[in-house]
C-alpha cells in the first residue's frame, strides 16, 4: 500500500506538554476521538512494546457505521517507538470482520518546536483500504484540533 494520510497543526504549547498528552491515559481518551465520537480506553501500558485498546463509539451511528460493530470501532494500538519529546510511533489494528479493515496501520506523531509552540505532524501508512482517505484525514485533523484545545488549556 503506497497511500499516506497526513495532518499537521501548530499548537500553543511546548513539545514536552504535547508529548505528555500523547502518553497520558485520560488526556488521550479526551482528545483522540474525532468529532462525532467518544472514546474509552480498555487497556493501558504506556511504554515501548506496550500500548492500549480503545473503543470509539459513534454518537450517531446511522451516518457512520462502525468497523467493529454498528456503532463502534475497536482498535489495538502498540507503542512501537517513544522518543520524548519528539516522536511517538504507533501500530494500529482494527477489530473488524471486514477484510477491507485488516492489516496494521502505522501512525507517526512528530513534534517539532515552532516558535513558542509545537508543530505536530501525523503520518499514517499502510492504511486499510476500507478507510477512505478524505474521511481519515478529516479525522486526523479533528483529533489534532482536539489535542490543540487540550494542551492549550493547560
UniProtKB/TrEMBL annotation:
Cite the Pfam families for this sequence: AHSA1 (PF08327)
Q: Which domain of life is it from?
A: Bacteria
Domain Activator of Hsp90 ATPase homologue 1/2-like C-terminal: from-to ranges: 13-152
Spell out the SUPFAM superfamilies in the cross-references: Bet v1-like (SSF55961)
Signal peptide annotation: none
Assigned protein family: Belongs to the AHA1 family.
This protein is called what? Answer: ATPase
